[in-house]
Design a protein that fits this description.
Layout (H helix, E strand, L loop, with lengths): L1 E4 L6 E9 L2 H14 L7 E12 L2 H17 L1 E8 L2 H14 L4 E4 L2 H9 L1
Parallel strand pairs: 2-3, 3-4, 4-5
Antiparallel strand pairs: 1-2
Helix pairs in contact: 1-2, 2-3
Length: about 120
C-alpha cells in the first residue's frame, strides 16, 4: 500500500492497494491525502492501482466508504482505477455506491487509468 503525489502536469494523487487491506492502512492513506491535498490546491484526481489487491475485509469496506467520502471533501474530482480481479471490482462497485462516488472510472490496465486522467 502506498500513496503519493504523481509527478505529472496535472494534480494527481496515486494510491496503490495491495494484498488484504486493513482499516489502519485506509487511515494512513487518508492522512497522506490530507497532507497532499493542500499542495494541489484542494482540487485533484486520484489514480488507484488495485491490480494486486486480494480483498477488502468487512471492517475495511466500511472504512473505504468513509475514505471515498473524505477524499471528495478534500477536493477529489475524479478517480481512475486500474482493477485487477473480479472480486476487487465487485467490492469497489459496492463501496462506490455506498459512498455515492459518481466520478469513478475503471480500467483493466494502469496505463489506461493514467491516460484517462492525463487527457
Amino acid at each position: 500500500m502506498s500513496v503519493r503525489r504523481l509527478d505529472s502536469p496535472k494534480p494527481i494523487i496515486e494510491i496503490v492497494w495491495e494484498g488484504i487491506v486493513s482499516p489502519e492502512q485506509v487511515e494512513h492513506v487518508n492522512t497522506e491525502i490530507e497532507r497532499i491535498a493542500p499542495e494541489l490546491g484542494n482540487a485533484f484526481d486520484v489514480l488507484v492501482d488495485m491490480r494486486n489487491l486480494k480483498a477488502f475485509p468487512q471492517d475495511t469496506k466500511d472504512k473505504m466508504v468513509a475514505h471515498q467520502k473524505r477524499a471528495k471533501e478534500l477536493g477529489m474530482k475524479r478517480a481512475s482505477v486500474a482493477v485487477g480481479g473480479a472480486i476487487a471490482k465487485m467490492q469497489l462497485n459496492r463501496i462506490s455506491k455506498e459512498s455515492e462516488h459518481q466520478t469513478e472510472f475503471q480500467w483493466e490496465t494502469y496505463d489506461e487509468a493514467l491516460a484517462f486522467l492525463l487527457k
